[in-house]
């Protein structure tokens, strides 16, 4: 009788989940130890979220930043299932999907990311657009096209959240809309990018000012409806007309994870040890936004794509080690710097003693993200397209 291979089930196909699976395929398994690796995700494609902003301005195409899982994994032993998780039985070590399918596991990886909370402000669920998924970018694109085709003199956009996502989105939208755009960036804090290096914050403030983006700081959103947003600033409440509201602030753990009988913090993130294992359940690993993670030095790990990418490397290694009798490694987060786009051909980059902004930072950011794309084959397809695109545009313009 053939022995059943070890089953590794990975829930979530973002940076944490997909890159953990790919790392597992790179490790030296003996023929008798090779596991069965399954990724489950509700969507059919991976999203390289840091480049999602480029869809707004048409700088990149959807296939470049959101390739289908089936295409990415076609030359790997990784199995992909598109489905939504209905239940996780940690006692029976079994995952149930909404279509009735059951998946048994020997090792489980929780990497389902976070969700944007829209139920904290009246009207946000109905009228605000989050910016996490390709579907969000498509929804924004559709709304922009309708407004751009209208006879409206001004297109009024409010971006909620003055962190990296809000600033990057504001700059891209300002460039796309040009003189027709009336943009405001709303944040409860006293400044934008409060946790960013001074260099990045100053570059962002300059970029927003040049693009005439209005800053509403120390301001709270009270409510919104189809055509207006109500803001409160120092006990003064104003209702302003608006055409689009983008919501980029906040993250919450998915309900399916919150319901698990696992140790969680006050924000319902799963508490894990430095080896990325869930407390009291060493067969379960958790990483990314849904995990309360501290590295080997006790420092809290940030909820960023960079951190999830690094965690995936350790998770892959530790899964392999746990199945081959080797010692597991404690996660050590390495802050490699921060990058953000500030419009077309403009970005900022800090880290490892380097400070860049402008076009040079834009090129460096693109090259770094090209290297971070999930597979060598996809990297080559995207690189060829980036190199050939200027020639394609030249030929089209000369026709």
Number of helices: 11
Share of residues in helices: 25-40%
Task: Note the main sheet.
Answer: 6 strands, mixed
Oligomeric state: single chain
* Proportion of residues in β-strands: 15-25%
- Mean pLDDT over the full residue set: 94
N/C terminus separation: 66 Å
Number of strands: 22
Low-confidence parts lasting 5 or more residues at pLDDT below 50? none
What is Rg? 22 Å
Strand order of the largest sheet: 3-2-1-7-18-17
Tell me the overall shape: globular
Look at the helices and sheets and give the structural class.
Answer: alpha/beta
Core attributes:
11 helices, globular, single chain, alpha/beta
Secondary structure topology:
Blueprint: E1 7-11, H1 15-26, E2 36-41, H2 62-65, H3 69-72, E3 79-82, E4 85-89, E5 94-97, E6 102-104, E7 107-110, H4 124-127, E8 128-130, H5 134-149, E9 155-160, H6 164-177, E10 181-186, H7 198-210, E11 214-216, E12 219-224, E13 228-233, E14 236-241, E15 244-247, H8 255-258, E16 270-271, E17 277-278, E18 281-286, E19 291-292, H9 305-324, E20 338-341, E21 347-351, E22 354-358, H10 359-372, H11 376-397
